[in-house]
Amino acid sequence: MTITLDSKVPEGPLADKWQNYIANQKLVNPSNKRKFKIIVVGTGLAGASAAATLGELGYQVEAFTFHDSPRRAHSIAAQGGINAAKNYQGDGDSIHRLFYDTIKGGDFRAREANVHRLAEVSVDIIDQMVAQGVPFAREYGGLLDNRSFGGAQVSRTFYARGQTGQQLLLGAYQQLARQIGLGNVKLWNRMEMVDVVNVDGRCAGIVTRDLMTGEFSSHSAHAVVLATGGYGNAFFLSTNAMACNVTGAWRAHRRGAAFANPCYTQIHPTCIPQADDFQSKLTLMSESLRNDGRIWVPKNPDETRPADQIPEEERDYYLERIYPSFGNLAPRDVSSRAAKRMVDAGQGVGPLKNGVYLDFAEAIGRLGESTIRERYGNLFDMYARITGENPYEVPMRIYPASHYTMGGLWVDYELQTTIPGLFAAGEANFSDHGANRLGASALMQGLSDGYFVLPYTIAPYLADLLNKPVPDTSHPEFAKVQQEATDRFKQYMAIGGTKTPDHFHRELGQIIWDYCGMDRNANGLEKALSEIPALHEEFKKDLRVTGTDTSVNQTLEKAGRVDDFFELGMLMCKDALNREESCGGHFRSEYQTEEGEAVRNDDDFAYVSAWEWTGDMGNPVEHKEPLEYEVVKFQTRSYK
Amino acid sequence: MKTLTNLTLKIWRQDGPDGQGRFETHQIPEISDEASFLEMLDILNERLIEEGKEAIVFDHDCREGICGTCSLMIDGRAHGPQKGAATCQLHMRTFDSGAEIVIEPWRAAAFPVIKDLMVDRSAFDRIVEVGGYITAPTGGAPDANLIPIPKPVADASMDAAACIGCGACVAACPNGAASLFTSAKLAHLNLLPQGQAERYKRAEAMVDKMDEHFGSCSNHGECQAACPKEISIDNIATMNIDYLKSKFKNRKALAR
Fold first, then answer.
1. Helix, strand, coil proportions of chain B in percent (round to 5)?
2. What does the pLDDT look like over B66-94, one tens digit per residue?
3. Is the CATH number of domain A496-601 1.20.58.100?
4. Is there a contact between B154 and A135 if contact means CB atoms under 8 Å apart?
5. What's domain A14-264+406-463's superfamily in CATH?
6. Which of B1, B53, B67, B196 to mutate to probe the A interface, most A CBs <10 Å?
């Protein structure tokens, strides 16, 4: 499959493009919709909202999740909120401002037209979710409350306590459940997609593995939507849920879908620091805490006193000092790197000196403990449970951790990958966040793609297929792909080595974190590019999977996912090495100012890198989509 | 940080839905009190695989107490000894050296065991599918601030909406009833102005579906005690009132 990157951005002025697109796109009439079958893989915010809406419109939809229920997807763990340009606070917000903040927050590496559309539909999302019964926080007068978030100077974030992701996912899940109950959507739970099937240059369906029985099966459709999430678990330790993986996107990549900007990964500044080597995952503390918490470290690296005994003048409120206008609300990448610099300089706090303080003493003094409890109670409880410390009395300790991935499957304006008929939505695609995502924008993008974009943009593709025969699962290509998947999993069982999938995942994650984490350089990346294949070879020879492949086997599931992380890890490092600039979440230490700020290179790198799989993980081919801005002017991102 | 020593785990193993279950005993010679309960099981599983044995199957995912995937009866209590927390939020500092800990799957007829500690909770989805939603097709929603909702109402709705669908309420209930789960969803939606149009239809459909799968509520209150989100049993009373009213207010019946 040859790759051509046609972004299909519609004509017209930026602010009119989406309306022009809607007005002129091909439609599928209501009675014809039932002739089309669409597979949606993944039932998080993007997948559930897409499946529900497509089912509502009258398409035959089949939704696949590897969870026991669609309500489990990791969208549920998003805490802080969802952005929308409602300007309910009358503080100067607008669609243009949300658009601009997102482009700027993304360090000028996102596609302008997509981001503008995202800002436009953001307002519809809030209306839709309220109509569905999402219990957003309200003022005493009964109107919706907002708060501010990193990277913005307006209060545009809607929230439901510290559980916004949960409430939005349950909203989308309930809409999906309604469609399942009505028979418009068929749900396949505990089914993992393990490959994509293309016939005659179009996506014809998927191959799945039933996690209960180990059985492989083929499913055909007119179009397939991947809403399979991000790849933050490549680092092993991340805030992602344990089962989050790249397999959906990666298997599509191996079948011809270009993978864009894999080096753009987000390290979230406010996570609970690692406590020990056996730790299985890290826990995020919502960025919203930075609204009231002040971040500091002791000025003296040899400080041994407890936080409350360190006098004000011996504390370094470094974010407020370095970035006076944004202060503790500086964007995620900026805040994360600043924390790393403090810890690297020996000023870290906690038993392992691997964190910085997030201190609420001042806010509690000003607002009272009950207000703080009201705003962040569940987060404080969560922190206390994990660390055994009471954050109302002692400052929280936080440190950055892998959290979100901006990179993903390359998609055009219609969210179609480079495989015709294969679409990608939510975190699985690369489209809206450039090199860095702003807080409270992931929920916005997932719901935008699923509710308000994909249901429109999938229609033109389907309209062209009306009354044309499409291959079903009897096509030999399905049998071939299914056999390959079966053999692959048989092989994991057959290796009979000595080490567990988790062992390899941990080692791989360490390499990627060390060399392709918060701070990257050419030497380190070269090193990673030689260490990963060596470890992958060892994986292929020394993996041990116990149990059987005919009933639930979580070790086997994990083996398949880790295998894909190896190949993805290579591509992340390759992309990071190629991009000789610092931008957003991608920080190359060779490209920084004397003060340690990122130096972007717009002359040479204002493009999206879209990688083509060649069959050899060491030698992918890079394609470039130039980023041409009609409205926005490149600027050095400054939050000072 | 301190280290716990000499823990004995008695863990339920079952090869499949129809398999004969049994307890297996495993020793944990030492473990840090910073470890979470599930991390202890991870470590045990790593050891089992290294010994060539099959890892213990258990459901888990987010490990932050929000996805509702994890379960486990720990010493006979759903989600273990810590109040208001899911199993994944339980840390070893809650236990003492030398403890014997019994780990079983959810015990409820409506949640059949799939393997070891993993159960099938899809009956919950069936309840939501018949009415646990507000019908609001995508597009065409009015402005979000059109209907002011008093803060106490929004807060009460949110309290109920915090349910994570883990199934602890059912596992803790001597009757295997799902009243707390069902009533929490009903309270979430029925308290809001947006939920009024379908209020009684929703209550009737969800309660009827619940009764197909689960036992009857007899007000033991074990569900509330076990709930990791501390959902109030008051919701059950409201559900019962709405269900009763639905029999009078059922629009379909009235139209007949």
1. 40, 15, 45
2. 999 999 999 999 999 999 999 999 999 99
3. yes
4. yes
5. FAD/NAD(P)-binding domain (3.50.50.60)
6. B67
